[in-house]
């Protein structure tokens, strides 16, 4: 496996430079339950506007009917590799509370997913977030309420063997990690 550590322009925490989104998971290894619970706990303690905690999680372990339902909702190339993950976690936003829109719900759920990802990485799990899925299929399969919306699906589990991967997967895994410079993202810097 090539070195996946990010080359940063300013110092950041090692857990951030070392985290990357694999598409190669060990299709036979079970999920480390303690590491999974720690990642969910980290998500639980992520920042939340007015402490509304709009996040909900669908945790689907490989081999379960829930896992199959999530795989069925994936689009395109995601279906080719994500089923190997030991678990698929759907991050769901509750978009209303007491009849009022929680316009920051998706943002808070994104923070929960980020905290989950970093804790999972710190505990030796690999992750990959996906937007390529049919949210309506997830909603139907899991009976989500009208005010609940699937935001992202995250594959999580032990890293697989790159040498056993097909050419398409291997090429994506070995591609250089790139991000545009911070200066191109900052709109105003007074």
Mean pLDDT: 95
Instruction: Note the run of SSEs as H and E.
Output: HHEHHEEEHEHEH
- Strand percentage: 15-25%
Q: Radius of gyration, rounded?
A: 17 Å
Unreliable stretches: none
Helix content range of the residues, please? 25-40%
List the total number of helices. 7
Class by SSE composition: alpha+beta
- How does the major sheet shape up? 4 strands, antiparallel
Strand order of the largest sheet: 1-2-6-5
N-end to C-end Cα span:
42 Å
Count of DSSP E strands? 6
Gross geometry? globular
Set out the fold topology.
Blueprint: H1 14-18, H2 33-44, E1 55-61, H3 65-73, H4 78-81, E2 87-94, E3 96-97, E4 100-101, H5 105-122, E5 126-130, H6 135-142, E6 148-157, H7 167-174
Antiparallel strand pairs: 1-2, 2-6, 3-4, 5-6
Helix pairs in contact: 2-5, 3-6
Question: Could you characterize the architecture of this molecule?
Answer:
It contains seven helices and six strands. It has helices at residues 14-18, 33-44, 65-73, 78-81, 105-122, 135-142, 167-174; strands at residues 55-61, 87-94, 96-97, 100-101, 126-130, 148-157. By secondary structure, it is an alpha+beta fold.
Give the key terms.
single chain, 190 residues, alpha+beta, four-stranded antiparallel sheet, two-stranded antiparallel sheet, 7 helices, 6 strands, 34% helix, globular
């Amino acid at each position: 496996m090539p070195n996946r550590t990010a080359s940063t322009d300013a110092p950041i925490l090692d857990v951030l430079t070392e985290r990357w989104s694999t598409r190669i998971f060990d299709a036979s290894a079970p999920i480390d339950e303690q590491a999974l619970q720690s990642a969910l706990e980290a998500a639980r303690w992520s920042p939340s506007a007015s402490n509304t905690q709009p996040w909900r999680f669908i945790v689907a372990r490989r081999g379960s009917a829930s896992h199959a339902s999530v795989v069925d909702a994936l689009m395109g190339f995601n279906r080719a590799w994500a089923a190997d993950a030991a678990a698929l976690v759907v991050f769901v936003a509750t978009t209303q509370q007491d009849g009022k829109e929680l316009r920051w719900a998706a943002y808070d759920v994104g923070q929960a997913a980020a905290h989950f990802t970093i804790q999972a990485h710190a505990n030796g799990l690999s992750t990959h977030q996906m937007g390529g899925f049919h949210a309506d299929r997830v909603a139907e399969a899991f009976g989500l309420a009208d005010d609940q919306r699937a935001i992202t699906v995250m594959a999580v589990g032990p890293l697989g063997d790159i040498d056993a991967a097909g050419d398409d997967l291997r090429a994506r895994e070995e591609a250089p990690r790139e991000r545009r410079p911070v200066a191109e993202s900052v709109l105003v810097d007074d």
